[in-house]
Write a structure and sequence with these properties.
This protein has helices at about 10-25, 110-120, 180-190, 300-310, 320-325, 370-380, 380-390, 415-425, 465-480, 490-495, 525-530, 550-555, 565-580; strands spanning about 90-95, 125, 135, 150, 155-165, 205-210, 215-220, 265-270, 275-280, 290-295, 315, 335, 345-350, 395, 430, 440, 455-460, 485-490, 510-515, 585-590, 595, 600, 620. The protein is of the alpha+beta class. It has a seven-stranded mixed sheet with strand order 8-9-10-1-11-21-12, sandwiched between helices. Helix 9 (about 465-480) links the parallel strand 17 (about 455-460) and strand 18 (about 485-490). The protein starts with 7 loop residues before the first helix and ends with a strand.
Amino acid sequence: MNWQRRPQTATRWFFFTLLIVSLAACGTTPASPTAQPAPTSAPAIAPTAAPTQPPPTEAAPTQAPPTAAPTEAAPTQAPATQPAAAGAESTITIVIPEDPPSFDPIINDTGYDALVKNMVLLGLTGIDADGKIYPQLAAELPTEANGDVVINQDKSTMDVTWKLRTDVNWADGEPVTADDVVFTYQAITDPKNGTWTEGLDYVTGMDKVDDHTVVIHFNAIYPSYQTFFGGVHGAIWPKHYCKADQGFIAWDCARTPLSDGPYMLKDWVAGDHLTLVKNPKYYQAGKPQIDKIIVKTVPDASVRETMLKQGDADVIMWTTEQIVNDLAADPNVKVSVAPTSRFVMRLFMNLAAKGSTDPDKNPNPFLKDVRVRQAIRMAIDVDAISKAVWHGYGAPVWTEFHRPPYQCDIARPKYDPEAAKALLEKAGWTDPKGTGVRECHGCQNAKAGEQMKMDLNIYSEYGEPLQLTQQLIGEMLGKVGIQVELSSIQGSVMWADSASGGTEQTGNFNIDLYDDGYKGTDPAPYLRQYYSSASAVPDQGWNVGRWKNAEFDALLEQTNTLDEQKRKEVFCQMAKILDNEVPEILLFATINADAYSTRLAGIQSNINDVVSWNIADWTLTK
């Protein structure tokens, strides 16, 4: 499983460009908002409760100069006063396929950076497996009710006051303060060496009130304010340790971090392993209970699986459907499945002609007609694909609004190939010659006699399950008279910007197949990037199907409210539009699971974060 299922880096770079323009224009901080399943049974699913919020404390770190990858040397944070353990030191091993690029998931967003970030750094908040936001560095969550969220109705702006815990220290003994929060914000928004992170477009500035209080100013009512500097990417960096002149995207401290979390980096041998030891002055008394964590790089999936079975590894992050199936009968292994699913396998359909990005001037001869899109949805047997390829773990999903708290009652589309054929006939796509491939005879956008042939692409890095899914879809469409050419494209090419010849940004495709979905608990940023008319412009979002709907756009603007009931009503109106218009065809959710040894307890897979989100709560049972 790959956390970076979509072109995160390209999207981030686009918004960072907007950020720089905004900074240059106003001379201060950014403004101008833009855009971002239920699991089936698995072996020995073992959920846990949400963590009791974190923040940490002492041991003198030694900062090493950055290298292409750290090498084994003196501990980055050697706990000089750590007492000798009574009895054997407890150690677990987590195996991952590649090194984390750093401890900063904002920069590369591979998921492996988030894995280790959660061990050593805290954000203002976290999100648990059920989608509940909880405080980390924050003393409490700011709300309108407690007076820490103040909305200016006339200007539609808001100020959010964050009060920090007073018992959290960095590993060298220095307290975590408001200066660190402001420093992190200033580093990220630096025009030269900063970057973009979700929500930054809505922030106009940040003020320190006192040593443990900051106020964030928003240029709009921003419903996701509680996860700004929180959630899977959220981390506050130490002002006294990180070197501001190195810049956020390149500073040493992202690879040799100073901890305020439950663990500290001891050593990092590039291409082999990282060693993390528990922080003896972590602010939560009695936590963590496990002394040492080895994060080992093992590229081969079958080797990682074997290591877990044989007891040489304790956790496999992002366990695929195949591995879950393989482990089902193993008495020494459990699998935790997230309570809800995030990544949904789907078809992205280009409403503009292949090689074009304007469906009004140059419509796709096949897909611009909504009846063809509806017919394609009818022709695909989702249950058969899930059973044949995904071992039954591919739970059907047909709407973006399938997760709490914004679930909408949208009827599941029926698999009905005969109805699909009839709808294609009505759309003017017939097969008078009996060739098995339909032709345009009265269709809307193609020339008379043009055959219904189009490409169906996947990204090559995903592997065999996606290839088999592509093949089955191709066969199913062929049975209703739609001929598709199957091809595989590198993700770096598929999701590159238009100047680099990106397949989607240049419109050089008919249908692409892969999985995607929104992180966190708020679908609005995702909907803005993937469905709004503003994001249909090349390089200004990921509405690569170029679908535009004025009613949908107007509803999207109405989601900028803190009224949860109002938001749900609006989202469900949007759900009906998407169901009728079918700009994308959602098929099924891919599993979000993590496998672990039965000697471990406290692990809970989480779609809003990675498996280490509650690592301070992990314990050994034997």
